[in-house]
Amino acid sequence: MPFDDPTILFTNAGMNQFKDVFTGKRRTDYSRATSSQKCIRAGGKHNDLDNVGFTARHHTFFEMLGNFSFGDYYKEEAIYYAWEWVTKDLQLPVDRLYATVYESDDDAFALWEKIAPELKEGRILRFGKHDNFWSMGEVGPCGPCSELHFDRGEKFGTGPEDKVNGETDRFVEIWNLVFMQDDQLPDGRVVPLPKPSVDTGAGLERLAAIVQHVDSNYGIDLFQNLIEAISEITSSRYSDHVASHHVIADHIRALTFAVADGAGISNEGRGYVLRRILRRAARHGRTLGATEPFMYKLIPALVDEMGQAFPEIVEKQEHVVNVIRAEEESFARTLETGLQHFERIARQTRQAGQKTIDGEEVFRLYDTYGFPYDLTEIMAEEQGLALDDEGFDKAMVRQQEQSRAGGAFKAETFPHREEFDNLNLQLPPTEFVRDRLAVETEVEAVVGDNESSAIVLNRTPFYVEAGGQVNDTGRIFNDDIEFEVEALHLYNDLYFHVGRVTRGSLHALKGKDQITVTAQVEEGRRWDVMRNHTATHLAHAALREVLGDHVEQSGSYVGPDRMRFDFSHHQPMTPDEIAEVERLVNAQILRGADVRTQIMSIDEARKAGAMALFGEKYGEQVRVVSVPGFSMELCGGTHVQNVSQIGPFFVVVETGIASGVRRLEAITGRAAVDYMLENKRFKLDVAEMVNRPESDALDGVKQLREHNTSLQKELKKTRAQMFAGGGAEVGETTEVGGVTIATNDFGESDRDTMGAWLDKQKAMAHPVLAVAVGLANGKRAFMAAASNAAVTTKKLDVGKMTKAVLPKFGGRGGGKSSFAQGGIEADTDVSAVFDAITKWVGETVS
What we know:
Number of helices: 24
Distance between the termini: 68 Å
Largest sheet: 8 strands, mixed
Structural class: alpha+beta
Radius of gyration: 34 Å
Shape: globular
Strand content: 25-35%
Low-confidence stretches: 406-411
Mean pLDDT: 89
């Protein structure tokens, strides 16, 4: 999960965590790195979902191996390291390896000839931008790349399409070396990165398939026990349903690792992608004969296989099982609704005299209900219908474009960044003065004008947004100028104070050496933020105590107005659980413990039990913030000195934002005091309204509600008696073929009142059909009844009538021959419904 990067749905490459290093936004104390990175490619620019299961090498979840250079080694060393590792460590046969380079990258071509002379005879190939140029998105880091490909042999194909960078399984790309040298800006310009760098990526599963001499990634050891578990749980044979086994094995890996990392399943963003993955796997499960939820039963087999390498899936196993089981059960209900939707559109297609189901409707089945195109095609063929594949393809392309736009990398920018870059200044990092709200400091750089400008100081008390905590605001001033700080941005370890001049002129800060100013944080706002931040730590600890150790942070907002804490949990909190969290946090506040801050190594912090916070990157030395005996977390934010300074703590919202992810919002300090005073005023107003003492106000409200309920029942009974006694005087009647059709639009009503009138009509000795329509609980209800004579002598069937007429008005219903009910669209012309029923009676009787 890319917790600190809103520009991508999932971590899709090993370089994601180093993006700020490549662009120069963040400095590190190292210039090289290697990693094995958990990745998901199922949304945005990098989307392999539709290929999974039908090729030997595509996955949604996979592990990417990589080595990185941040201005250290470059092309020659990167190519040398790759060739050495592949040929000496993995011992892949040299005569089956090919190298590719970008079409204009003569340097890389010459280096391959030098380092791997075995490839000189036609096995170093040039390709264009589509194959050998890498970029994270429409904007951002980019550069030419060089790839290593492996020839798996003639048994995988000997045709003209079996070639390097082809679409078949014979030649497999095993390693991509990206020579990251440029930054694509939003305005279309391409500028050099601060230092040419190297980013490489090699899929573990692809390499394992080659080393283990298997025909498919799904044949490697990591998948064997999982595929066996799928066969056992679904009572199916792998050889009979290879693709479905592959889809399920891949997708359960993606779901398990994403949910264990704090992701939820929902209808938007990454949650929507995960829902699509789960439903795709569930549909393939049905192909194997699994009609009940089954995927959650596979998680123990996956944990047994990969839990040692990834202990997080061991720790979160119960939580992952609960989330996936709940989502499978929900999809089972959605699937039934989808089948009903298909039947409806198939019927409408036939009634319109057409033979092809509209492509938009087919896409809706795919997108909303999880129906693969081929499944819908089979169901349509069974009813003699075809699908509008062109319309479906257009809808699919539209969604993919929206997904790419939503998941595209957006360059980190702020006002006047380009103007600053053009100055080519080499400035030392800004020093953050944590323990003071005002400091004297010197101006390092100024860009912009009086209305909008950015100031860099050599040290600052202003906090820049990180780890969920918002920026500080305040002012920078001296005798000549006052500047209002509205926002802050961190770029290349420099704090940019962005805002406007409120007194004097910006020229007072330009063209002079050692200009001294005072930087002053807005004190009241900072205190509100600090209260909420420390309260977030207390709430986290309290949630784990009340709900269990599976609770981990999935997101946060710490502002002056409130704190918001997103956490992993599979069901809504009960009122008692919320109250217990409030009690625990307020008890700690009353205890009045000092908040301790310690600097220690990351290993020492972990051994001490400190929890890592959402969205933070940690170096070798970390800040540990603790409330002794209750909470200990790694945190770079600002906090109160003593928990008693937080003031009252109240939870104001607890809600779900995705399957497996809950959200808690709370207030402290001044906002909490206002909340208490408002509640006190509310209680006084209610007590006055019910004419009771404040302590008895709730009893007064209960008594008032009971009295109101009793009156409503009496009114309902009286209305029912009135309509039942009124008989045919209520509504209108029409004679058709010897049948009296009585109709009435009751307007705002209820089913009991309508039913009482129908019962009166139904009791008539002669043939009567009575139809009632009314708005009940905000929905337009339809009810109909026929007398015994209408059923026996005129052969009327009210159930059939309801099924025949209501769909014409966007409704549905059904029932027996003498009684039926249903619903129609709220804005339906009721007189048109009555006319259609009259016509149906005429046709039936005749």
